[in-house]
Amino acid sequence: MNEWKPYLNDRLIKEREGFYVIKPVEERQIVPLACPVCDYLMRTVDDEKSYREFECCESCETFWARARLPSWRDGWRPTKEQVQEKLGGRKKITVNMLF
After folding, report:
1. pTM for the complete prediction?
2. Does residue 7 sit within a domain?
3. DSSP 8-state symbol, 9
């Protein structure tokens, strides 16, 4: 079994060195932990949806992406100064991680 074969709906399977490798048919876009525009944590499903469409969190989508949609699609992004000015008052959440 050296070729990828269909397996369980949207998966593929292949045998390799005595093990079975299973992978999704389509590669999914990975949502980062923090918004690439404002650097705040992605916290909600709405942030995830915004990232998949606009590559930013919901707040950045609402304020910048939708307001300047043609420019945004062409690659425009706010400067760090613009981000600080607009979102500087937004509270950052504290994350406690135990390992």
Report:
1. 0.63
2. yes
3. T
Q: Examine the domain organization and report whether 83 and 50 are in the same domain.
A: yes
Domain membership of residue 1 (yes or no) is: yes
Residue by residue, DSSP assigns 38-90 as: T-PBP-SHHHHHHHHHHSS-HHHIIIIITTTHHHHHTT----HHHHHHHHTTS
Rounded Cα distance, 26 and 31, in Å: 15
Does residue 63 lie within any of the structural domains?
A: yes
* Residue range of the domain that includes 11: 1-28
Residue with tokens 């074969």: 5
Express each pLDDT in 24-47 by its tens digit: 888 777 899 999 999 999 999 999
Indicate the number of domains in the chain.
2
Calpha distance 28→64 (Å, rounded): 25
SS3 94: coil
